[in-house]
Amino acid sequence: MNRFLSFMRSRWLPLSILLAAVVLDVISKQLVVAYLKPIKTLPIIEGIFHFTYAENPGAAWSLFSAPDQRWIFMSISSVAIVLMLSYLFIVKIDSPLLRAGLGAVVGGGIGNMIDRISLGYVVDFLDARFINFPIFNVADCFVTIGAGLLFVGLLIDWRREELSARAKKEAERDDASDH
User: Is 127 a catalytic residue?
Assistant: First the structure.
């Protein structure tokens, strides 16, 4: 248990998640290109969930897909990845949720950036038809889950600070009334 807690508090947590995101994303996309691209779609549960090959030249939901906009988006994404990586290495982050979230977001961002640089588009293949959702990939899952972890981690930290400030004010008020 101590090793697990030590790992959760270490810099290895976000790096492990980042590496897992990149490796899983790259391998899944290589398999998709090799086996799914020729057949275009493979129903897993007909009409509900399919593996469907798609090329996304832009950001989420094909935003910024025009060729001249692609470089703007890639530049912004690159700066965001570098800033988050720097934050991970420079700032001591106490919250495992924040570290894990940053690792997932950066790993997913790197996974999609590899496609953008090498192919000019991102390979998508997860097709949730039951909710009429845009086709996405493993990197997108890591970015979304990571963003959720960051949100929850920030809420917990905000609430903890709020409770701490309230307790401090009550203690000061109690000290003042004792005198």
Answer: no
Which listed residue (25, 115, 127, 140) is catalytic?
Answer: 140
What is the C-alpha to C-alpha distance for residues 55 and 136, in angstroms, rounded to an integer? 10
Lowest mean per-residue pLDDT among 45-49, 70-74, 144-148, 162-166: 70-74
Other CB atoms within 10 Å distance of the CB of residue 19: 14
Q: Cβ(27)–Cβ(21) under 8 Å? A: no
When pLDDT is cut at 50, 70 and 90, the band that residue 135 belongs to is very high
Q: From 144, 152, 60, select the one nearest 97 (Cα to Cα).
A: 152
- Told to judge if 124 belongs to the known catalytic residues of this protein, a careful annotator would answer yes
Residue 91's φ and ψ, nearest 5 degrees, are -90, 135
Query: What's the pLDDT score for residue 146?
Result: 98
Active-site hit among 25, 115, 124, 127: 124
Residue entry with tokens 């991102």: 122
Vertex 178: Cα angle to 174 and 179 (nearest 5) = 125
- Identify any residues that bridge with 155 across adjacent strands, giving them in sequence order: none
Nearest CA-CA partner of 110 in 66, 89, 72, 140: 140
Question: What residues contact residue 84 under an 8 Å CB cut-off, 6+ apart?
Answer: 102, 105, 106, 109
